[in-house]
Amino acid sequence: MAAELGFVLICVVLKTTTTLPPTLASPTTTSVVDQVRELEGATAGRIRTDAAATALASTDFGTNASSVDAALPAAVFYPSSAADIAALLRASSASASPFPVSARGCGHSTGGQATAPGGVVVDMASLGRRGDGPSDARLAVSVHGRYIDAGGEQLWVDVLHAALAHGLTPRSWTDYLHLTVGGTLSNAGISGQAFRHGPQISNVLELDVVTGTGEMVTCSKEKQADLFDAVLGGLGQFGIITRARIPLVPAPARARWVRLLYADAAALTGDQERLIAERGAVAGVMDYVEGSVLTDSQGLIGSWRSQPPSSFFSEGDAARVAALAKEAGGVLYCLEGAVYYGGAADTTAADVDKGLEVMLRELRYARGFAFVQDVSYVEFLDRVRAGEHKLRAAGLWDVPHPWLNLFLPRSRILDFAAGVFHGVMLRRGGGRAMMGPVLVYPMNRRGWDGGMSAVIPEDDGDEVFYTVGILRSAVAAGDLARMEAQNAVVARFCADAGIPCTQYLPSYATQAEWAARHFGPGRWDRFARRKRKYDPSAILSRGQRIFSHPLAA
Known about the structure:
Layout: H1 29-42, E1 46-48, H2 51-57, E2 75-78, H3 82-94, E3 101-104, E4 120-123, E5 129-130, E6 133-134, E7 139-142, E8 147-151, H4 156-164, E9 168-169, H5 181-185, H6 194-197, E10 206-211, E11 216-219, H7 225-231, E12 239-247, E13 249-250, E14 254-262, H8 265-276, E15 288-295, H9 315-327, E16 331-341, H10 349-362, E17 370-376, H11 377-381, H12 384-393, E18 404-409, H13 413-427, E19 438-444, E20 464-470, H14 479-497, E21 502-503, H15 511-519, H16 521-534
Parallel strand pairs: 2-4, 3-4
Antiparallel strand pairs: 1-2, 5-6, 7-8, 8-12, 9-13, 10-11, 10-12, 14-16, 14-17, 15-16, 18-20, 18-21, 19-20
């Protein structure tokens, strides 16, 4: 069922069926098409304006714009090179009425980032095609330099396999690998490795970017650093990523995959924090640390988002888990972790055995509810794909996804758990309250670069903060409206309880809301300054409703 799948947290949606405001209005469809058609003779890019192409380009994983005519682009552009994209952006910038342009990778955003109402959507996958099929020409590994150059349209799963061919691997991942490099880097890219290595945006050496003015720029921390920082986590507002240089490390071959069940949130979060700490008996044991919330209304076993090659549980285990959930009042917690070893990594199987022995002795999980599997490194990293296949087979993949993703301070995570996991989500919606994975896990602040555009909670002096992802699928009539309403209730609960929360890639209706509720004064001033510098005509990613043309002074 839909509850079997979960992803990296990409965007938050408080209301997914949003009518796009008049500020998104752009030149008429006819005038935009006429301008773009002129590019066909000057570039190798192709243009499509047919209903099939524009309808697909108006949707995303949240399906928030699928039935809103105003979200339709005038055209879809299929570039053959970064120069084609630059020509498109220069054409818009030079126009008396600049038309919106958005880059679309796999369309996995849920807040409209990849839409261009009345404008042009750039089909990024075209950059990686040669003839009628995909090409690996835009994936180049430097063994000596320990990095991979990946086109912005490339999928992370292909980056993985290209690097593994040389015994190497990136360090920081998303939980779902079938996303584009440019897509996750324009957001942040987080998962259970982020506590140690930071998000994916903290693991980039260099970028090729096409800015909103059509300038092609190579940038890094040493060269054009302001643009580099702006684009990473910049929600597509400052430029389109056409290449990223990702650092690589020696690759392991195996993963020891662990799931531990807990009857209360305090025990779970306490153990998670011990595992991601720099010192202590179990510090450093795990390479990957996440967690999830399980309820009896979800279907405790089927609700887990990641699919191992064989089940973690026997039928007897499932019965015991159900009994434990009943004793705990209907809510359980799961700590999910992994240790990588073998291959080119320094860790051996004996090291893993020793570390897990200490960990299982020290942690405070419910005794008798530790489950362990040994899988290949690739099987672990690409585990969500199996859940996707199951949902597609059942016709449950292409449904609305009213996700809610939050960053919370460590000091209030237990208050949030009590009020939301044991309150809002059990009181409202009955047996369909969850209908998807609910993630909760900590990250270390030191892994994030404050100069980049991604927003995390204000520094309260605590190194640790939490991410919570309520990743639901609206599969039946009425689910979408009910889940959106529940997301709003969660937001109100946080406000009423004084729990500061930062939405991870939110969707707001007005610029004022973006400025006040997401960025805050200091961050907003920097974000707006960068917009004026790199996209002064507000061409890029207008579908998010952050900026409109003309930019305010």
